[in-house]
Design goal:
heterodimer, A: alpha/beta, FAD/NAD(P)-binding domain, eight-stranded mixed sheet, 24 strands, globular, B: mainly alpha, 66% helix
Chain lengths: 493, 167
């Protein structure tokens, strides 16, 4: 298996691993981009294509297909924020977020959706973003879908996804097939640990190599610490080199000067950098409206083998429950399936001792459904707030209030009903006091009475969004419809 | 003892004072686990992994030690802020007052009765104090993460491991 990144580096791509720096460094460029995920990767591609000299700054390491060995024990510490156990301040939500070159696009499950029309409508109404619509964005989506090979996935869904399809069909719930950004996918099922066959068309294999090929520079293991600004212009970015462990500062610093700065460090990292830098924020909007699509989990034992670790992780979904009410009404949810690997499943599953072991022994027969709640539209669903911890690093407060739990209960009920309709012999919400149920009738009664509270009911997230809100005026947003910061002229998010 | 623990759990202030004290003791941050911490984790993993661990005592002891090594590796991969919190939690549990009043375990960890350890884990799991609930969750996730990260635990759950031979 050829490793295109190692080949590119051998051919002279400019990469500096800041953990290896022997002395401080000064760098000058046209544009400095902080973050190499979906935002940073695409920006680097477009701007380098326009002839600009671009420097990409990434806090995580550069890893590529020959490093991706499909082992959770390696992948989580190497490729994820906080070893895949990043949490909200109260520890009630576990957040899966990438931290490596390519960001979350390197470790996501390849599901590719366009922004739904009703979301554009809401943004237009609430934030005056009239320039953003299905029509105005469609050519941008089309270009990226072409570049990332987003297309229908013709291979039959794996058994885990088939459970969702079969249950939904029994109940007359319409389902859809998920488009995936893959090229020559081997259908292995290890997308979450980095694609070992270079099939996933992440930033790591598309936009970033394109930019590096045009002479862009990549600096990894560098934490963007602080933007320096004078008047209404950013003048420099101070970076702190990390040791190879990705945690401790090495003592070396990198000073980056540029004409323009693009902050693409994700919805937790980007507002944190702007907060640390003390950029103007008269309305106190920075870090607010940070959304997670909080996820509820339902685990089922099926009569036959499911082997949910094998095959494309997500190929079937339903948005049926997103469309039961207006977008700002009671929260709707999308249903999907996750891949199951031993560490991810065992740590998520409630309980311990014999009860835990009993379920783990049936690991190969487990189906899991996920419900992703659409937060941020109901007037009481205001999302989280990023603030700075005592070490200057981000902390996310995300209160789980009544509107979330009301939707959570509906979601747990919907998932259990689908799993029983598909033939499950036993279903449990992932919840500390749920005893598990052997029939839909039992589950319906049990889930209706389940106490839904933080830390009792497991909530996770893999979608971190917002943090530097977009709007038509600085009174209600941090940036305008093109991502330009309202107060600092040469800063974009 | 249970009554004493309940009484103590109600006094959140005392709990945070004790946590602060334990934190001070561990202000150095990431470090190898001490013998006292390994004994404490030994008692906890013995209960958490009951059913997964072999019944043969020598084999059980060896696998508990391996799991504790795995927990140390996991902790070293967490953010420095989380490492500090874990250090505070462990520091608290290895102090006799913390073990006795907060965990409700009267004997030192290496002599603790399995039933007492079980009761402690259940109490924290269903505690009304989110601090203790999240501490239980951390112990749960660290232990099961360390256990199922190891290929030799996969056969028991029918997981064949990642595909081999193509790469």
């Amino acid at each position: 298996m050829q490793d295109p990144i190692k080949a590119g580096l051998a051919a002279g791509w400019k990469h500096i691993d800041a953990s290896l720096l022997a002395r401080d460094l000064s760098v000058e460029a046209d544009v400095v981009i902080v973050g190499s995920g979906a935002g940073g990767g695409v920006t680097a591609d477009i701007l380098s294509d326009a002839g600009l000299h671009v420097v990409l700054v990434e806090e995580g390491p550069l890893r590529s297909s020959s490093d991706f060995r499909m082992r959770e024990a390696d992948a989580y510490p190497e490729l994820y924020q906080e070893s895949a156990s990043r949490k909200t301040a109260d520890k009630a939500i576990n957040i899966l977020q990438g931290r490596c070159v390519g960001g979350s696009t390197t470790v996501n499950w390849t599901s590719s959706f366009r922004t739904p029309p009703e979301v554009f409508d809401y943004w237009q109404r609430q934030f005056g973003l009239r320039q953003l619509s299905v029509e105005s964005m469609s050519s941008w989506f089309a270009v990226m879908e072409h570049k990332l090979r987003v297309r229908a996935w013709d291979t039959p869904p794996n058994a885990n996804n088939k459970v969702l399809a079969a249950g939904a069909e029994k109940l007359g719930i319409p389902i859809g097939a998920i488009k995936r950004n893959v090229k020559g996918c081997w259908n292995l099922g290890y997308c979450g640990m980095g694609c070992p066959t270079n099939a996933k068309q992440s930033m790591l294999l598309t936009t970033i190599p394109a930019a590096l090929q045009r002479g862009a520079s990549l600096i990894t293991r560098l934490r963007a610490e602080r933007l320096r600004f004078a008047g209404s212009r950013v003048t420099a970015l101070d970076g702190v080199a990390l040791q190879a462990d990705g945690l401790h500062p090495s003592g070396r610093r990198v000073h980056l000067r540029a004409r323009h700065f693009v902050i693409a460090g994700g919805a937790i990292g980007s507002p944190a950098l702007l907060l640390r830098s003390g950029v103007p924020d008269p309305q106190r909007l920075l870090g607010k409206r940070t959304f997670l699509h909080p996820v509820l989990i339902s685990s089922a034992l099926m009569p036959e083998r499911v082997d949910a670790y094998a095959g494309a992780p997500q190929s079937i979904y339903t948005d049926h429950f997103l469309h039961q009410a207006p977008i700002d009404g009671p929260l709707g949810f999308k249903l999907e399936t996750p891949p199951l690997h031993p560490v991810l499943y065992a740590t998520t599953l409630q309980g311990f001792g014999e009860t835990h072991v009993k379920l783990m022994r049936e690991f190969t027969n487990v189906n899991v459904l996920l419900a992703l709640l659409r937060d941020g539209f109901h007037p009481e669903s205001r999302g989280g707030q990023v603030r700075l911890g005592s070490d200057g690093l981000p902390v996310l407060d995300y209160p789980l209030g009544d509107v979330i739990w009301e939707a959570a209960r509906r979601a747990l009920l919907a998932m259990a009903e689908i799993q029983f309709a598909a033939g499950a012999r036993w279903v449990t919400p992932v919840h500390e006091t749920a005893p598990g149920y052997s029939s839909w009738a039992e589950a319906r009664t049990g889930i209706a009475e389940l106490p839904l509270k933080p830390l009792l009911c497991r909530v996770v997230s893999a979608h971190v969004m917002g943090g530097c809100g977009m709007a038509d005026t600085p009174q209600r947003g941090v940036v305008d419809h093109r991502g330009r910061h309202f107060w600092l002229g040469n800063l974009s998010v | 003892m249970i009554a004493a623990r309940r009484q103590f759990l109600k006094t959140g202030l005392a709990g945070s004072l004790l946590l602060g004290c334990a934190g001070w003791l561990n202000a150095a941050g990431a470090r190898p686990l001490s013998d006292a911490e390994r004994e404490m984790l030994g008692a906890l993993t013995n209960a958490l992994l009951d059913g997964a661990l072999p019944t043969d005592l020598a084999a059980r002891r060896r696998l508990i030690a391996v799991t504790i090594d795995g927990i140390a590796v996991e902790i070293a991969g967490l953010s420095l802020a989380s490492q500090k919190e874990i250090g505070e939690l462990f520091g608290l549990l290895v102090l006799a007052p913390g073990r006795r009043f907060l965990a409700g375990v009267s004997k030192p960890w290496r002599e603790a009765a399995a039933g007492d350890v079980l009761e402690f884990l259940q109490a924290w799991r269903s505690s009304r104090l989110s601090l203790l609930q999240s501490a239980y969750a951390a112990l749960h996730d660290l232990t099961f993460g360390a256990w199922y990260a190891r290929p030799d635990t996969w056969e028991a759950i029918g997981y064949p491991g990642p595909p081999r031979g193509y790469f």
